Amino acid sequence: MATRRQEKVARLVKEAVSDAITQHLNDPRIEGLVSVTRVDVAGDLRSAEVYLSIFGKDEPGQNKTFAAIEHAKSRIQSLVARRVQSKFCPVLHFYRDEQFKKTLEIMRLIDQAVGEMKQRRNEEDSDGGREQPGIGGGPSTGSGW
To answer: What are residue 38's phi and psi, to 5 degrees?
Structure first.
């Protein structure tokens, strides 16, 4: 479990990295939406794992965006150092966060399964309304037995 100090530094790093990417990097390779999803700071506060979700047109574009952010790592590091008031500024390590993509894929699969179930139910309902030979589906005679 993270200490309050780790959580505070993680929050500051997350804000600083997000601000650095959106406001201070002018690399044309960075396209689409880049979101800092979480930051994990080591117990000694000397390193931080920064997880990024990149939403772009296609996978190669997302890879270029991540490569551009990796390339600008030292610039981002210096911008973070200005914001973190500590003896040491954590060394940043960037990772792609695939959790959001996995969640979207699961949601798509659930929606697909629900759609297939509705389609089957509609087909069964439309088949159930027709009279099938040999299965007493005739009009009621009212004999009330």
So the answer is: -165, 160
User: Residue 49 and residue 12: Cα distance in Å, rounded?
Assistant: 13
Query: Tell me, what CATH number does 22's domain have?
Result: 3.30.300.20
Domain containing residue 12? 4-97
Outline where the chain has alpha helix (H): 4-19, 59-71, 73-83, 99-128
Half-sphere exposure of residue 124, counting CA atoms within 13 Å on the CB side? 6
Q: Which helix (H) or strand (E) holds 91?
A: strand 91-96
| pTM for the model | 0.70
Token pair 């759609």 is found at 115
Residues 6+ apart with CB under 8 A from 88: 45, 46
CA distance 75 to 25: 9
- 35 strand-pairing partners: 53
Encode pLDDT of 96-144 as tens digits. Answer: 988 877 888 899 999 999 999 999 988 888 876 555 555 555 555 555 5
**Domain annotation covers residue 106:** no
